[in-house]
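Hi support team,

I submitted a single chain yesterday and got back a structure, but I'm not sure I'm reading the token output correctly. Could someone confirm the output below corresponds to the sequence I sent? I've pasted both exactly as they appear in my results page.

Thanks,
R.
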Amino acid sequence: MQRAFTTIELLICLTLSALLLRLALPGFVDLVASQRAVAATNAIVGVIALARSTAMLHQSVVVLCPDNENRCGRRRHWSAGALVFADANGNRQYDPEETLIGTLPAFDRGASVIWRSFRNRRYLVFNPSGLTNWQNGHFQYCPANGDVRFARQIILNAAGRTRVAPDRDGDGIREDARGRPLTCV
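Hi R., thanks for writing in. Yes, this is the structure output for that exact sequence:
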């Protein structure tokens, strides 16, 4: 004796499956976006820590700058990735004879990463003491879709220490160092 589904049973199963998928999909999309924001934040914090610790360990000047085909790019090119190198000649540019310490890979297409700092430099310099030469500021990550719920800001003090901007009021949007909600433009 063979058993099979009737057409009505099959339609009921398909309808229930579609309904469950429709309910679960938005939560899954938000979970993926949240995990991408966490990964981007961790990558930025990690490359800053690498630059700072290398400067102190090797007692040398280390530069972190936006990558433009193995050259330091313009201020707004951080989403293309970054270079960390020992700047032996002090020109704040990666030269072939200098030691490339590490890289930050490019972010998702359409995502933006911006560096804003005191002294308005396109790069970040760590002195042999691990200090930033008074370059306190912040990196801000915004996802490709511009959803501010998944924006992250990494705040850097002049001592070279980082912290991630919190969501103090619990509204799902993080606030900058001055308490203003982050925006993605």
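A quick pointer for reading it: The chain has a mean pLDDT of 92. Let us know if anything else looks off.

Best,
Support desk
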